[in-house]
Amino acid sequence: MHTTLLGVLGLALLGALHAQDTVPVQTDFQQDKLIGRWYSIGLASNSNWFKEKKHLMKMCTTVISVTADGNLEVTSTYPKGDQCEKRDSLYTKTEQPGRFSYSNPRWGSKHDIRVVETNYEEYALVATQISKSTGSSTMVLLYSRTKELSPERLERFTQFSREQGLTDEEILILPRTDKCMADAA
Prior knowledge:
The protein is built from four helices and nine strands. It has helices at 2-21, 31-34, 48-53, 151-163; strands at 36-45, 60-66, 72-80, 83-93, 99-104, 109-118, 123-132, 135-144, 171-173. Strands 1-2-3-4-5-6-7-8 form an eight-stranded antiparallel beta barrel. Strand 6 and strand 7 form a beta hairpin.
């Protein structure tokens, strides 16, 4: 019985690792074309914080720049109550173009970030696998260069999120707002 349980758990872990490896990365990724201002249009996640905060979330701006050593500095500005809050993150490049890592010491999390697809001028679809001591979660972000995207791009985001195992309750098209848009870096 004990051996069977370990075997099942081992297969489940192997399946989870395999699923993470099947998340694609943009072919011929061109990092220099990703820099600049983006709007977060869609967010999907199975994390607890998303479930708790989903009803408060609104569209935000994200500015991506390249550091001297080729990593990405990602600054997001979003409405939080009456104020605008900024969050800076450093995405460290990996050997695979379009794939980055990020560690958040405050939350004790490690992030495997992949630019799944983008045309650089209109949209970017980004998938993140987050690992913490308490478990793992999946997050999918849909970025746009403008505050609106075509129904086809929104549907692609929803479809891809479902392919990652996320349910419709875990997928959100962020409500549009003008708050904090001018405050972005």
